[in-house]
Amino acid sequence: MNNKIIQALVPVIAVVVIFESVMLVSSLEKNNTSTMVVNNVTPVVTVVEKQKVNSFDVSFSIDETQMKIGKKYKVSVKLMPKDIYNLNALDLYVKFDPDMVEVSNLVSSKDLETPVLIKVSDKKNVVAMNYLFADKEGAPFNKDREVVILTFTVTPKTAGNSSFEISTGDSDGDSVTMFVDKNTSEGLFFTSNKLDVELIN
């Protein structure tokens, strides 16, 4: 009697063992799959670049762009603030070709204090003007109020084409035009134009 019962239970036990084994293997595969999915997730980092806001427009002004050799011409550099700013310092550098033109008679703005430096540097091929404003509140520049920051005289030396432009730095990292904000002590972003002239006999 006992042998018959045992013989009847053996197939049942075998089925149960096989079923448990299948469930265990299935469970392990699910765990491995979950681990792989987690390991393959790549975190996405969004970097928000600080937007550059144009604070000043810098432009050249001249009566005529065709110049005769030996004759003198007046060039002005103008600033147009796009908002209200107070500056701690202002460094302005104008690039030119000393082989083509002579630059002289530098005059700074009558609306600002005297610059600490204003000169022509033939070695660097720039007109340099530097302000370090003494007022602790900085020098005020009002929105849409144009300032003639610099004027100078140009005398053509030889025929050809030449140009003037605002320097943003040379190969040595010098002659960098900057407008230093009083509140942040950072340089403000600006745009500028290029003055192309034709030198004739």
Summarize it.
This protein has 201 residues and is of the alpha+beta class. Helices cover 19% and strands 41% of the residues.
Characterization of the model:
This protein has 201 residues and is an alpha+beta fold. The chain folds into two domains: 1-42; 56-200, Immunoglobulin-like, CATH 2.60.40.680. The chain is 19% helix and 41% strand. The protein has one helix and 13 strands; from the N terminus they run H-E-E-E-E-E-E-E-E-E-E-E-E-E. The protein has one helix at 2-39; strands at residues 56-61, 66-68, 73-81, 85-95, 101-108, 117-121, 126-132, 139-141, 147-156, 160-166, 178-181, 190-192, 194-200. Strands 2, 4, 6, 7, 8, 10, 11 and 13 form an eight-stranded mixed β-sheet that branches.
What kind of sheet is the major sheet? 8 strands, mixed
Approximate strand percentage? 35-45%
Span of the ends, CA to CA:
132 Å
**Count of structural domains:** 2
The secondary-structure class comes to alpha+beta
Shape call? elongated
How many strand elements? 13
In the CATH hierarchy, the third-tier topology of the largest domain is known as Immunoglobulin-like
> What is the average per-residue confidence, as pLDDT, rounded to a whole number?
83
H and E string: HEEEEEEEEEEEEE
